[in-house]
Amino acid sequence: MDVAVLGATGDVGRQVVTQLVERRVLPTTSRLQLVGRPGGASGRAVHGLRADLVDAYDEHAPLIDVAHSPDDVVADVVVVAAGATTPARSGASLDRTGLAVANREVFAEYADAIARYGSGHEVVIVVSNPVEVGVAVMARALGARRVVGMGAWLDTLRFRREIAVELGVRRHRVGGFVGGQHGEDAVPLWSTVRLSGHDVAERDRAVRLLRRGRTLDAFPDEIAAAKAELVEVAATDVGAAYRLIDTWPADLRVVARPWMTHQSGAKTATATASATVDLVEVVLDGREIVVAGQVALDGEVALAGEPQRGVLGVPLVLGPEGWTRVLLDALPDDETHRLRGAAAAVGSALRAAGGPGARGGAGAGTGGVAATAGAGGTGAGPDRRGQPGTGDGPGRDGGVGRPETPEPSWVAQVEGLHRAGTLTGLTGVFSTRGVSFERLATEEVEGDGDAGTIHVSFRASERRARALERAVGRLATVRSVVVHGAPHETPAPPPDRAR
Ligand SMILES: NC(=O)c1ccc[n+]([C@@H]2O[C@H](COP(=O)([O-])OP(=O)(O)OC[C@H]3O[C@@H](n4cnc5c(N)ncnc54)[C@H](O)[C@@H]3O)[C@@H](O)[C@H]2O)c1
Ligand SMILES: O=C(O)C[C@H](O)C(=O)O
């Protein structure tokens, strides 16, 4: 399985690629694509970043390559870390609405290219802010089920850590989720908290103590007051500001601590990347695991009886094809109320972002995006919205919408290096995209003795054949590849060219 990181040279992107390699999430036969901007500093720096990663991790690094155009993104999992960010300095606002308009353009450019040239299987993890705008734009182009915003998972890990610290245990002994909008409209779902080794009565008592008699009703006001207080204290002593945060309730700390980190001049890139790599790992792992994420809902969740249609952070089941289910039981009133508030805030952010990604079904007051997948979770892609000419194979729709006529046959002529891993890499590109070989033949190694020709016959839509050609061409063990229609299916040339 291959991973592409958009914005790989940014603070977050650089951490994501480093942790992907350092945590050995990708086997050596997988490909990690570092995506920069053509012509800009990042376009140059991706080459240097690649060299640096190989220098550091040669023993276990995956194949690492670079790309400079959205059209060249080829991967099974795409991490979106490109775009503008809020400055990290004292007095800077973390209000993400200011980023929405600029980053919507970035999201749209990549979403269109992946929809047009991708395999139809990519799972997209949106890190860039506003996460909800990124999810809305990507989900519209690629289908809701293939797109997950990472922010709710980072907020969830922060929530678990703050609870763990107060109870004197490690984070992995705490369960529970944060939903809502990433950032200040995050909604700590206290009712989902589970503590390992505690029975229900012990857990209820611990949660009561942790909450200090508060509900979420005053949460937005508490956050505003906390920020004002931190500005004052941090003006003379940043250390004292962090000590002040330590005295606050766990849920308030979830929002206040990262906010203070940005005010301090540091960024939150390490924790952000760690949470992102968790999600990549889940998708690559092949199993379904419960996480939290921002997703484009199409009525899978009802709040106070109202089905939600729009982007919202919720606990969900994530697996190799994207997210399949939302796991949200009936909630107490204060959590329902805050989630509805967050949904409304997301709606406003999407409207402020404007543009095509923010138009569409505005159910349940959430505004914004039209989620395209139904509750069945078949991973709707652009084809399913009836666009012509993008028909794709069964792998794309999870068995739904199988084309009635057989897909055309193709032959790939591959110049592959005469070394271990060439055939494995080649078969990996096809198998991870759900395309079987009809025939594979190798020729004698000739010429300089370093490379030989491999012929692969397969059936696929033209779009997928071109995506495979690009993916194979990017293997480090491949010198060149040409895919052409199998001879018996090549249409006869027009009469004037036949003469
Ligand atoms: N979801 C989260 O939990 C979370 C946490 C931290 C940061 N973020 C977000 O991640 C994003 C990246 O943050 P960062 O600190 O790495 O920023 P950064 O400024 O350090 O890096 C931004 C990267 O995006 C690229 N980029 C900028 N404009 C682009 C464009 N128009 N097209 C393509 N690439 C472009 C840059 O070349 C660079 O590689 C920001 O939107 C930030 O708000 C999200
Ligand atoms: O970069 C940011 O805007 C902050 C980030 O989303 C975070 O939650 O740490």
Automatic annotation (TrEMBL):
- Asked whether the UniProt record includes Heme among its keywords, one would answer no
Map out region (Disordered) in residue numbers. 373-408
InterPro entries documented for this protein: L-lactate/malate_DH, Lactate/malate_DH_N, Lactate_DH/Glyco_Ohase_4_C, NAD(P)-bd_dom_sf
Task: Please give one Gene Ontology molecular function term for this protein.
Answer: L-malate dehydrogenase (NAD+) activity
- This entry's Enzyme Commission designation comes to 1.1.1.37
List UniProt keywords, sorted A-Z: NAD, Oxidoreductase
* Biased amino acid composition, Gly residues: 388-401
- NAD keyword on record: yes
One of the Pfam families matching this protein, by short name = Ldh_1_N
**What Gene3D superfamilies does the entry give?**
Lactate dehydrogenase/glycoside hydrolase, family 4, C-terminal (3.90.110.10), NAD(P)-binding Rossmann-like Domain (3.40.50.720)
Annotated Lactate/malate dehydrogenase N-terminal domain ranges read 2-140
Record's PANTHER family?
A: L-2-HYDROXYCARBOXYLATE DEHYDROGENASE (NAD(P)(+)), L-LACTATE DEHYDROGENASE
Which named protein is this? Malate dehydrogenase
Protein species of origin? Oerskovia jenensis
